[in-house]
Amino acid sequence: MNDPEDDAEDPAERKMRFLFQLRSRGVTDPRVLEAMERIDRGLFVRGQFSDRAYEDTPLPIPCGQTISQPSVVGLMTQALNPGPRDTVLEVGTGSGYQAAVLSALCRRVYTVDRHRRLVQEAEAIFHDLGISNITAQVADGSRGLPDQAPFDRILVTAAAEDPPGPLLAQLKIGGIMVVPVGQSDAVQTLIRVTRSETGFDYDELRQVRFVPLVEGLGQT
Ligand code: SAH
Questions:
Q1: Model confidence pTM above 0.85
Q2: 105 secondary structure, DSSP code
């Protein structure tokens, strides 16, 4: 598997393998695959783990956080099903990779993280990539982003015990929220919440493992 020749792998071949892995794990939506083909995950993984950026595995990023596994990014994006005119809130900017993938599929992305360092580093990558439809902000995402609400789509990339009330309230009617729910140190269930005229419908999608949604801002 870890053949040293991998280092010398041609980028086109590496990309094909990356996309093949995504498809084999259930990411089949052509728009999502196209967005993930376009946004190079290698730019969002730094330091000693950068040579593993194209593997289907979560990897450490600064502030003790993780960049999600690519197939999970794909499956969550697919479940969220953002449209080209949608405004999306992402809670948990982390590396910025998921936000960049979303930005290729919708009109505007607001992404928030409790760690300033992560927001700043992600913003620098968005700038280098010429992405201009992402607004990244330091904020406690468990409260949502009331000034920009309501949202067509909300994606939470940290695990909450329950879908946070303020986020439910900031979802448009007809809107969709995807959120991992469960105890932070255990396996969680990814759920999709759809808001109707009369209430909220919940679908359980799959088991996942995310870092916890923590209230308040981080120290860095
Ligand atoms: N979507 C990211 C991965 C997120 S990891 C990516 O593509 O790389 C989860 C992130 O959620 C972490 O960066 C963590 O700092 C952030 N987080 C946890 N609780 C939060 C909260 N209450 N508000 C905002 N961000 C939070």
A1: yes
A2: T
